[in-house]
Amino acid sequence: MTRQSHLVLLATLLIGVAACDREGPTAATPAAPDASLDTPLDFGPNGLGRPLGMLNFDQRRLFVRGRVVFNTFFPPEGGLGPLFNGRSCAECHEAPVPGGVGDEVETHASAFVGGVCSDLSSVGGPVVQDSVTPLLQIALGIDKEPMLAGATDAGHRTTGQVMGFGLIDAVPDAEILARADPDDGNQDGISGRAHMTAAGRVGRFGRKAQVATLHEFVAGAFVNEMGITSPPEPNEPNVGGNPLPTGTDPTPDPELNQQDLDAAIAFMTFLAPPTPRLFRFSFAQRRARFLFRVVGCAGCHTPVLFTGRNSVFALSHRAVYAYSDLLLHDMGPELADICLGQATPSEFRTEPLMGLRFKTAFLHDGRALSIDEAIRLHSGEGSRARDRFIALSAREQAVLVQFLAGL
Description:
Radius of gyration: 22 Å
Order of helices and strands: HHEHEEEEHEHHHHHEEEEHHH
Number of strands: 10
Structural class: alpha+beta
């Protein structure tokens, strides 16, 4: 191909991407004026927020459109609420780029009675929304959702980053199941188990690994976090088990059509993971990797998983440096809060550590203000690794924490 042909191809690609970036969501009501529909596609430092490499033209175009949906602020007349936690995906997943972490802390609740878990969905659970639209406020005289009736437990959830979630979605169930050891057969004190969903899939998303696919995760987030219905999630959460008062939700359902939902899913599917700040050949880096294994962190925070064969070339047979086995582990009564699905109050999915450097609060509820503190608060199956970390010299502890702070 000649140099002139290369230039023509590049110009065509840029024109197509720019045209896609100007197209706004096609929800029941147009996006709010501050939706930034004409913002050009740009990336953060070190390419953060970029799409995966090796996407074809149509996939990259869908990524751009999905980024618009992800950034769109939905007003009440555009389907927001009546119960909600945020007005856009990017309002919570914001730093350092759309798809990153947020400073919001949510309340979730459930009932765990006689070993049986209820997510309290019949009374509006498990998410307890912290905001309401003006129409609902007038109708019920509330400014947030009341605590769920029948709840035996409540917990807080910080907002994690979603970069690299498409790769996690592409990890085969068998890859996760191969690392499960529910009966601790190797007697290492770690007995991770897969969270099997009602559909027979291995869960991997959510702090309790209660969601198996990115499609379910995104559609669920729209309705639970913003009250935005879509074809797979056509019903808003109710208030205390009672239907929403007449007139408080005037936008016809679904409030987000399938095309825009698919675009939002594509954005998260193709959003590249953050590249760790690793210095592969430095002595400190090699020492940190060695300590990570010796202390026992890698027993749950598996450094790398692999995707399987995938119809999307960019997701096929790729290494995923998630630093998680995506299994449930019993973390002891000190960290326990709610149940979800098969997960008991003390069980949590191993938190992926990719993107750890963007967080300012740690653990599922943000109770730890540093990586060092988060390690020291590990209990249950994390106790042995915690104790080995504490037994390290102060210098070795600092080397390991510095390594983790670069992920």
